[in-house]
Design goal:
This protein has helices spanning 34-39, 116-125, 130-133, 179-186; strands at 11-14, 17-22, 25-29, 50-53, 58-60, 66-71, 78-80, 82-88, 104-111, 114-115, 139-141, 145-146, 157-162, 165-171, 196-199, 207-209, 214-219, 223-232. By secondary structure, the protein is mainly β. The structure holds manganese (II) ion.
């Protein structure tokens, strides 16, 4: 039976491949670097926690190019969170840490854009974070680099600058829950599937952007992305 109408499938380009990686789900890890947890008012190693964004929150950043995202409605404090993104390539549940690598298709650079004012209000009220995190065009992402071409990623530098000024600058080995641990933990609660993306958390230095700002970030070995903040969408 055919559909009433067509829905576009969010997809991410893959380095060295003319086929794209279709996106099924976007999982995000909260407070996964110690210094960022501290700047958010928390300390210590707590169990990982997760939130999600819809697949169509993806914004593709072309290699060597710049994507533009609108300043989102309903917020006056929109933050950048530069993150290592893991692309899942194999179905699995209850994955052991030592097997996690088999489930990784590749890695990309992403930004978990956040309406911080709404997230904080919701957090304080004990309500879900969707309005703060899962909004339209809140998940810019660069090209996926296949895992076989991304050796050493677990210690790579991760950084982002806004208008040329460095805001976040850390290394992936400072993750509280590293990539295998995150996959193991998440897969106890959700069966992971090819097409799932995991935004693994952001280091310290999150901060606000305004219309006209240009974000420029990267993870060594995965390339760089440029994302410009446009005016508020008239829609
Ligand atoms: Mn984040």
């Amino acid at each position: 039976m055919s559909h009433l109408f067509e829905l576009p499938v969010a997809a991410v380009p893959v380095a060295g491949n003319d086929k794209t990686f279709p996106v099924r789900r976007i999982y995000c890890v909260g407070r996964n670097y110690v210094e960022h947890a501290q700047e958010m008012g928390f300390t210590g190693r707590e169990p990982p926690f997760f939130f999600a964004k819809p697949a169509d929150a993806i914004v593709n950043v072309p290699p060597g190019g710049t994507a533009t995202i609108p300043y989102p409605p309903g917020s006056s404090n929109v933050h950048h969170e530069i993150e290592l993104v893991v692309a899942i390539g194999k179905r699995g549940a209850n994955i052991a840490e030592e097997d996690a690598a088999q489930y990784i298709f590749g890695y990309a650079v992403g930004i978990d854009m956040t309406r911080r004012d709404l997230q904080m209000e919701l957090r304080k009220a004990g309500r879900p974070w969707e309005l703060g995190k899962a909004y339209d065009q809140s998940a810019p992402i660069g090209t996926i680099v296949p895992a076989v071409q991304a050796s050493g990623i677990e210690k790579a530098r991760i950084w982002i600058a806004v208008n040329g000024e460095k805001r976040q600058d850390s290394t992936i080995d400072k993750l509280i829950w590293n990539v295998p641990e995150t996959i193991a933990y998440l897969s106890r609660y959700f069966e992971l599937h090819p097409g799932d993306l995991i935004y693994t958390g952001t280091p310290a230095g999150v901060g606000a952007v305004v219309a006209g700002d240009e974000m420029h970030g990267g993870v060594d070995g995965l390339g760089e992305i440029r994302v410009k903040v446009g005016a508020a969408d008239a829609a």
